[in-house]
Sequence to fold (366 residues):
Amino acid sequence: MEVLARSEKKNCSDFIKNGIFRNATWHLYKSAFPIDRWIKLGRENCILLSALIVEQLRFWKVCIQYGYCVSYFSVFFPALCMWLNVPTFEELIEKNVLDEFAAITKEAFLVLGALTKRLPNFYSSMHVSNGISEVNDEEVETWCWAQVGPVVDLAIKWTQWPLKKNTVWNSSVFNQRYKTFAAASYGDMIYGRQVVIYLHRCVETSVRLSAWNALSNARVLELLPPLENCIAKAEGYLEPVEDNEQILEAYLKSWVFGALDRAVTRGSVAFRLVLHHLSSFIFFCSNGDKLLLRNKLAKSLLRNYSSKQQHEGMMIDFIEYQKPGQREEASSMHMHEVERRFMLLTEACEGNSSLLRNLEKLSKSG
Fold:
């Protein structure tokens, strides 16, 4: 198996035509079985089976990289689900087979990474809804977008698992997904829902920041679906209120440089996230050591308003923003709350006459 996993393109083609690939990967054809059955095989058998499956996956990965055997995904995926699902770590540790499980899972995710590189442009002529498309006489295959959904469902299970600071993210799958989304999604709702899950508050900070910056820099934030159409409940994207300085500054940068302008008119979740987290942080969560950050964010928004009058509506939405629960309690914000927020922004200006004039102008337009 180790030799097969290092095969060159011509050899891979020959192995497939001669039935060697099918015979060498028969374990991946077997019906899926629960992980506890694998554990009950005993540590020595788990070690041997893990080593075999890892080499089988590597063999498949090499074939995929050459454009072959992509169509085997539908056959292999049911069995792979055992290794891609979130396990009971305590049991794996107790039986001393965590390393063996992790080795298979790692290789399975690397296979998925290879598959993402075989995805066609989302609306290209090669795209088909139910299978694999041939792109040349050598029968080089491309993966099908319709098969990406189940993989995303598994990824969501990992994000909903109680994440710790040291959670390791591969999923290469993530990087390829947002790049392809930026290049070829054209606002497809299903694909957008799969991408936006990486902005969920249960996802670790570094991943959310990378996802946001990639989408913002590519100017495709407006292609994300409305909050109500995202995967998982809306509260998961809004709470707890963001207080990470890097992410808040990333939100601000997108606002200032116009990356959110079209997101406003299209009702994208992107603007809703920025509006919620910036407004909530500045007006409710910026006490003590967060005061300097609050003033910095507020002043940047007011400077931007002075140079981009088209952002006036966005600024009014920012000041008058109410959380979902608040909107249900009252149809409009009480005047004293609006006044409180203007007073807070006045404090944030720290006596800057130019910013105070901008704020006064904004209060009259509101």
